[in-house]
Amino acid sequence: MRGEFKEIVAFAPPASTTGAIGWLRQNLLSSPFNVLMTIFSAYLILKLVPPVLDWAVFSADFIGKDQSACTSGGACWVFIGARLDLFIYGFYPFDQYWRVNWMFALLAFTFVPQFFDAFPYKKLFGLIALIVVPVVAYVLLLGGSFGLQPVDTNKWGGLMLTLVLAYVGIVAALPIGVILALGRQSKMPVIRTICICFIELWRGVPLISVLFMASVMLPLFLPEGMNFNKLLRALIGIVMFQSAYMAEVVRGGLQAIPRGQSEAASALGLSYWKSMGLVVLPQALKLVIPGIVNTFIALFKDTTLVLIIGLLDILASVQSAIVDPAWRQVSTEGYVFAAFSFWVFCFGISRYSQALERKLHTGHKR
Predict the structure, then answer these.
(1) 179 found inside a domain
(2) 163 and 287, same structural domain?
(3) What is the pTM of this model?
(4) What contacts 259, CB < 8 A, 6 or more positions away?
(5) Is pLDDT above 60 for 254?
(6) What is the number of structural domains in the chain?
(7) How many C-beta neighbours within 10 Å does residue 38 have?
(8) What is the arithmetic mean of pLDDT over 62-67?
(9) How many helices and strands, by DSSP H and E, does the chain display?
């Protein structure tokens, strides 16, 4: 006698395990400790957020020309609007702002497409950003050619200077760091020793000392009559310092690649540079994307240290503006603006790196 088969009906999961209620139970109310932490966090939010919003938005002053427009007792964002030119362009000539604006437009034109997967020719735009944009920006900002009025680098400042320092540092530090990492793993004792000494020397001193040395000591070692301006000296110091850290990040990725990969490349008849460029390095760099991006973000924030050698980046521009007697008690607004500016760029770099990780993921993630 054959048994009777009954159709199994699939029921929907309980409402308490799906949707918003399920998310709350799983993430905020899953244990007594999590319940206590949720209640404590809610208390902090209710205690701190409303006063901050009242100061920054509801009781703030946004429109005006001077300190007299700030009468509500909240944030005086009028100060930011009145000094925005200083915070963005520094002391760059007013009639030449269009050159800086063109540089910003070029950066946006080449980098914004990288955030969209469906955008065609992303690699071409990336090559333009790495090769063409630095040359065009140099000609535009410095001037002296193609009929452009020359502008001394002492007048550069604000967000423009911060982006120049960070962009040049990022573009130059990565390839130098890769070469140093390969040199540190070289089988040639002389090359390996030179790379190790370079890396350990630059990693063993703080960046503030490097900038002092680049500004004060470097001219002493140059031939008589040769002199670099202050900005170029700062760029050299930043690139050398960050390339040493980048080398260690890349070396970690190289050590994570099994030796069989390079042995297989050699078995196929590939030379050392072809095996590294086509087989080992692409895998190593993919593995250390978080470390590379972390180094880039640290570089971006470390640009504020150029204040000590007399260069006014965005933070230094804010500091120089808040001591103006015409504006009283606006330091909080200035520092909030500077912090928000840094956060926007660092957060954008971080989000792009996460998207790049997801795109290049091929099974290494656990």
Answers:
(1) yes
(2) yes
(3) 0.84
(4) none
(5) yes
(6) 2
(7) 15
(8) 87
(9) 17, 2
